[in-house]
């Protein structure tokens, strides 16, 4: 390639900016964060920190709370145990006679940050499963969260904030 072609390509890339490379051009909110940067397990509310803090604790309901640090804005729950709705231990034939789902447990880490105008809530879920039988039934295996649990906590928080 000649130097002229290289110069034209570089000039064109500077003139077109991020649109050439597929970067989002989402607008900035009042708080300096673009909406495209917020992950799906984070939500921003137009309420002060104190109100959002109390509402998140109410949204957790009867979950056991292991650690509450208001200064750092962190709430950690204990393990909540139940059965997986996605994984079965045996075949469809045995499931007809037995509710044979894998055991599942999760715990949440919720981070709340904000000021008197707005607050941001991030929910992280550590999810583990184990089968009902065999030698694997003695070990919890970490699995990737589907995001449903995190979304449920954020949805309940949003509903409670809208109510009052």
What does this structure look like?
The protein is α+β, with helices and mostly antiparallel strands and 164 residues long. The protein has one domain: TATA-Binding Protein (2-Layer Sandwich), CATH 3.30.310.80. The chain is 27% helix and 31% strand. The protein has four helices and seven strands, in the order αβαβββαβββα. Strands 1, 2, 3, 4, 5, 6 and 7 form a seven-stranded antiparallel β-sheet that branches. α2 packs across α4. The termini are far apart. About 12% of the residues have low confidence.
Give the structure's gist in a few sentences.
The protein is α+β, with helices and mostly antiparallel strands and 164 residues long. Helices cover 27% and strands 31% of the residues.
What is the total tally of β strands?
7
Largest sheet: 7 strands, antiparallel
What is the string of SSEs from the N terminus onward?
HEHEEEHEEEH
- The number of distinct structural domains comes to 1
Structure characteristics:
DUF3576 domain-containing protein, TATA-Binding Protein, flat, 7 strands, 164 residues
List the helices and strands and how they pair.
Layout: H1 3-16, E1 42-45, H2 49-59, E2 65-69, E3 74-77, E4 80-88, H3 92-95, E5 101-114, E6 119-130, E7 141-143, H4 148-163
Antiparallel strand pairs: 1-6, 2-3, 3-5, 4-5, 5-6, 6-7
Helix pairs in contact: 2-4
């Amino acid at each position: 390639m000649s130097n002229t072609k290289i110069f034209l390509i570089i000039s064109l890339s500077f003139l077109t900016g991020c649109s050439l490379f597929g970067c989002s051009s989402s607008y900035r909110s009042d708080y300096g964060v673009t909406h495209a940067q917020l992950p799906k397990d984070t939500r921003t509310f137009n309420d002060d920190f104190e109100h959002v803090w109390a509402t998140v604790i109410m949204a957790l309901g009867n979950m056991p709370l292991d650690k509450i640090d208001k200064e750092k804005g962190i709430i950690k729950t204990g393990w909540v145990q139940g059965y997986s709705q996605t994984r079965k231990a045996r075949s469809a034939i045995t499931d007809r006679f037995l509710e044979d789902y894998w055991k599942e447990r999760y715990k949440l880490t919720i981070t709340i940050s904000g000021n008197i105008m707005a607050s941001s809530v991030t929910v992280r879920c550590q999810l583990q499963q184990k089968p009902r039988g065999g030698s694997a039934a003695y070990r919890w295996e970490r699995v990737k969260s589907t995001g449903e649990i995190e979304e449920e906590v954020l949805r309940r928080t949003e509903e409670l904030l809208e109510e009052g």
